[in-house]
Amino acid sequence: MTQTIRRRIAPLLGSYRPEGDKSLSHRALLFAALAEGQSTIRRFLVGGVTQAMLRCLRALGVPCELDAQAHILRVQGVGLHGFTPPAEPLNCGNSATTFRLLAGALAGAGTPCVLDGSAGLRRRPMDRILEPLRLMGAHVSSDTGRAPLRFAPAPLHGISYTLPIASAQVKSCLLLAGLSADAPTAILEPGPSRDHTERMLAAMGAAIRPLEAPAHGAVVLPQTNPLRPLDLELPGDISSAAFLIVAATLLPGSDFTLLRVGVNPTRTGILDALRAMGADIQLLNETTLAGEPVADLRVRAAHLSGTVIQGDLVVRMIDEFPAFMIAAAAARGETLVRDAAELRTKESDRIAGMASALRALGVDIEEYPDGFRIRGTGVIPGGAALGAGGDHRVAMSLALAGLIAEQPITVEGFDILNESFPDFPSVLGLNA
Ligand code: S3P
Description:
single chain, 432 residues, alpha/beta, four-stranded mixed beta sheet, 31% helix, globular, binds shikimate-3-phosphate
């Protein structure tokens, strides 16, 4: 689907409660499957990526009932070792979170199967889970270090492993496998990746604890009792909210509140980055939901100036860079991002893809292996037809650019946004 986005004169006003967090939806669904008993998950994200996890778990014999209108999911857990070997390869679609988290659960369960995904997913690096899973004793093979992976049953050993790059997907994969290992599993990482797995598994009765600062990571013990089922409502997704935070910041006169958004400190780097540029974002009604901090975010329009992003902040806003790049392009002054080579391994190479799109829109951007430099003038000229490159966050970021650019922007493959944020067009009035 191709969408043309024109400059929006009207401010963004009112409020919106974002759909359930993608990372938490994946985890709640998978962990509920590994528990014993029935779980109920409210405000479950109904998007392409979570449908992939749902499809795989059903193929593994897990009874799941989704009321897509009400966003309520019921899962009948089969336990850590209760998967039925599937007849066909499991198809994770475009979802690396489905692939990597499920890989840890499958290794732990000892389920013989093949784990596969879309052509896009087959290009993404999986050696980062293959190597440590093999160190744990898993029988998992791949011809290329990428999908598809083949699993055969094998007993797992506890290991201590340091991730070369901070990654919540890899950490979660290994912690899940560690539940079925013969000794404790310690995962150390160089930066603070999201800790949703640790929080949720602990709430389900797992013996799991975060490492103490200045170390990052977690330790999990072999699980001797069944995991307890879940009954929870998920916080709104800050990664989806980020698009609306940028829109409200850039559209003059805006005053917009995002309700009950997850503000786990491992995810709020985008708020720190935008505030450092001059954004006006207030946290209101702070409370806890599903063991996670949540707040209402009130965003008022502001003029932005350039900033520098590097180090631990990068991992705390890793999914928000495409939206952030639009903010940087609309800011005045120079924005420099380093230490962000991981952006090249996401749904697309987000440095290359966004840099070439922004250049086509008349923005001054220079690319580095691990980042970029944008020289903002306060104006995005626009006036180009661009492809989303099969990346939901690129599609939505280009739409943001269209809302403020001088000339309309056409985005091909726009509907890929349904992977994570089906409400996006209607909240911004793009269907009108
Ligand atoms: C995720 C972790 C991040 C993030 C992804 C979701 C998760 O990936 O980019 O969208 O739910 O654990 P990495 O662990 O590869 O950094």
